[in-house]
């Protein structure tokens, strides 16, 4: 399967469900999302990345107001009859995404091996354009799209401090496999902790990555 085709399919969905009749909806969704995650300003060095993480949630996870389907699911259902076989495979891959927090356990010549902290499963991800972004042992939230025997990243990562891995793993193990609402809630909570850590780096990790925060 072609990475460029999957990216083109995702751009088509993004264009359809962020403009016109959906402009107000994506605006309201963003407001709601950051009320739960915590304020991120345009001056924040991580601002563009946070917008990518939000857009992933909006396109893949959040049911549209007048439908019980996310934009990715709705687009597939509405247009499947007109897809070529190649397009059908690419759009199906978007539906079959994986979203979790991962530990990078091994760097190969052209791929990464990740460990899913919610279930310990190991996945191999093509590292196109990402070799300089990550290092072994990194802990990060990411969304993966199946690509034959490997996976590919979508844009947007939430990088967590390595020192918080035990706490994060404990929280991720609480997630029921198909419960998107629970998964989103836990990932947002952890994302909020990451933002606090970024703002207050002088405060011990254990006072931020905790179910009983001190501030």
Task: Kindly summarize this structure in a few lines.
With 215 residues, the chain is of the alpha+beta class. It has helices at 3-16, 23-37, 47-60, 71-79, 85-95, 165-172, 180-199, and strands at residues 98-107, 111-116, 122-126, 139-147, 150-153, 158-160.
Shape label: globular
**Low-confidence runs of at least 5 consecutive residues:** none
Largest sheet: 6 strands, antiparallel
Oligomer: single chain
Estimated radius of gyration: 17 Å
Q: What CATH first level of the largest domain would be assigned?
A: Mainly Beta
Number of extended strands = 6
Order of helices and strands: HHHHHEEEEEEHH
Average of the residue pLDDT scores: 91
Descriptive report:
The chain folds into two domains: 1-96, no CATH class; 98-215, OB fold (Dihydrolipoamide Acetyltransferase, E2P) (Beta Barrel). Helices cover 42% and strands 17% of the residues. The protein contains seven helices and six strands; from the N terminus they run H-H-H-H-H-E-E-E-E-E-E-H-H. Strands 1, 2, 3, 4, 5 and 6 form a six-stranded antiparallel β-sheet that branches. The protein is globular and about 55 Å long.
């Amino acid at each position: 399967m072609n990475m460029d085709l999957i990216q083109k399919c995702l751009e088509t969905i993004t264009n359809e469900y962020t403009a016109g009749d959906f402009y107000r909806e994506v605006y309201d969704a963003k407001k709601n999302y950051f009320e739960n995650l915590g304020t991120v300003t345009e001056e924040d060095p991580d601002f563009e990345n946070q917008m990518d993480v939000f857009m992933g949630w909006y396109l893949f996870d959040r049911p549209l107001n007048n439908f019980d389907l996310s934009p990715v699911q709705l687009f597939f259902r509405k247009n499947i009859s007109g897809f070529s076989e190649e397009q059908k495979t690419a759009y199906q891959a978007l539906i079959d995404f994986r979203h979790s927090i991962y530990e990078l356990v091994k760097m190969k010549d052209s791929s990464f091996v990740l460990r899913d902290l919610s279930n310990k499963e190991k996945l191999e991800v093509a590292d196109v354009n990402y070799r300089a972004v990550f290092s072994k042992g990194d802990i990060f939230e990411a969304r993966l799209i199946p690509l034959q025997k490997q996976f590919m990243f979508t844009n947007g990562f939430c990088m967590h401090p390595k020192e918080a891995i035990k706490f994060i793993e404990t929280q991720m193990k609480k997630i029921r496999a198909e419960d998107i609402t629970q998964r989103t809630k836990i990932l947002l909570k952890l994302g909020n902790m990451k933002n606090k850590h970024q703002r207050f780096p002088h405060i011990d990790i254990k006072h931020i990555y905790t179910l009983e925060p001190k501030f």
